[in-house]
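I have been asked to look over a protein record a colleague put together. The record follows directly below this note.
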Amino acid sequence: MTTTGGLWAHLSGGALFWLTLTLTVYAIADRLSLLTQRNPLANPVLHSVWVIGTILVASGTPYQTYFDGAYFIHFLLGPSTVALALPLYENRRVVMRSLVPIVAALLVGSVATIGSVIVCAIIFDLPKMITISSLPKSATSGVAMGISQSVGGDASLTAIIVVATGIIGAVMATPLLNVLRIEDRRARGFAVGLAAHGVGTARAFQVHPITGTFAGVAMSLNGLMTAVLVPLAASLIGG
């Protein structure tokens, strides 16, 4: 028992251990997702989060220790976001032909994502801090945390809400769009990217390259719109 505990203490104290564990858990989750033919409920991000969380809680490992080990993955978020420009360039003609509906969908969608937070805050009488921290929930985490801080929100709380929004969006988007009988790949991708940022975009690329491209466009443009609209919404609710 002592030997096992000592071995765990030695391994868990190394930065490489948490990086390796995270990549291994994701690889297994992605493999299971593939075996289910990319069923939305088998989303690899969703299952990686709860598995890693369970391991941290069970082992009593502080989040900072985990983050120090898995920081390389966090670092790669920036380059991976920039890499979305490649499929966008390859499908630039398709995107340009859809410019007018893109602008219309962006305006309506951005207002709806922020407005839904205000409506929920009124219905459930949410504290102002939670409401303000939730306003940028559909932007990517880096952008959302910066916006949240600038309007008086809690950046850590915003990060949690953003991740939850992305996972829920990635899981629910396909069944919901099927029920609504929206078959256009451009519309499906744009809706997912706007509502569920990077996690939704990753899911969209699993479905089809065009769907993923339009999700990437929506994610990028919604980041800009969120930066403009959230300060206005925060001022309306007294933030």
